Amino acid sequence: MKIINPIHSNLIERKEEFFSKKPFPHIILDDFLEKKYFSLLEKQISKNNYFKKGKSFNSNLESNKSISLNTNLPDIISNITTVLNSYDWVEVLKSLTGIQTLKSTKVGNTKLANYHEMGTNGFLGSHVDHSTDPSNGLPHVLNIILYLSSEWKENFGGATLLFDKKGKKIISKIKYKKNRAVIFLHTPYSFHGVERLQDNKGLKRKTLYVDYYSESTNPFEKFDLDFPNKWFKHGTTFVLPNSSDYLKAKNWPYTKSLIKYKIEHLKSKL
To answer: Which residue of 15, 52, 220, 257 is surrounded by the most CB atoms within 10 Å?
Structure first.
């Protein structure tokens, strides 16, 4: 059975659209999984007995969120990650982005959490993800997020938010819709987050996340972007709502990450 909808097997025709989107290149692919496969997926994940939590997050920037740091996801989900890391799909992404050095990672779900859930009142603040493959240090350059919850309504919230290059201002809001995929260029300035969930009647916001890397340490050098096109190394870095928040003891991990980010940012300009 096919997994990815064949209508998304050739994305080169959407390359111009991808690079025209603000605040950073991205594209939305609806009906991403083949209809029959998504129907089987709906039945499996509706049982809610397949997910063994690896980590849970509850703070002023990460609320009611769980990620799967385990290898026990059912085949109906792990098969999707296998296809998204396959040679054929990476070739499709190369044609969309023009990054010919693009590659998938060999790191499994034990180090990079592919499956995420978020519950009532959950949200994810403005942040930029880790910058390197944990196994070899190659630059992280592309993300795909797949929305899996089938009973979701727009008033539940949970949209993906894309911020400006400083991670402060929301520029674009991508509504959560079942079987929708979002692909975006991951640079040190690709700040994004999740709109707060509300009135979602106990339903979980379920997503599958896969990232991609480049064998070049200058993966964006030929791109005309609205921000510097130099890659630099950094960890997952959050932007706190107010400057005074960085002085609070409970926020020290976030402050520490931002300091490291700022230092590497300055070094990249030298």
So the answer is: 220
What are the phi and psi torsion angles at 164 (to 5°)?
-70, 175
Any idea what the CATH number is for the domain that residue 75 is in?
2.60.120.620
Q: What is the pLDDT of residue 74?
A: 83
Domain assignment of residue 86, given as a range: 6-268
CA distance 89 to 92: 5
Instruction: List, for residues 161-214, the tens digit of each pLDDT value.
Output: 999 999 999 999 999 999 999 999 999 999 999 999 998 888 899 999 999 999
Taking each helix axis from N to C terminus, what angle separates 75-84 and 35-45, rounded to the nearest 10 degrees?
A: 140
Tokens of 220: 């964006």
Q: Which residues of the chain register pLDDT less than 50? A: none
Q: Is 1 domain-assigned? A: no
In a domain, 76, yes or no: yes
Establish if 190 belongs to a structural domain.
yes
Q: In this structure, what is the dihedral angle of CA atoms 235, 166, 155, 4, given to the nearest 10 degrees?
A: -50
Provide the domain count of the chain.
1
pLDDT value, residue 48: 60
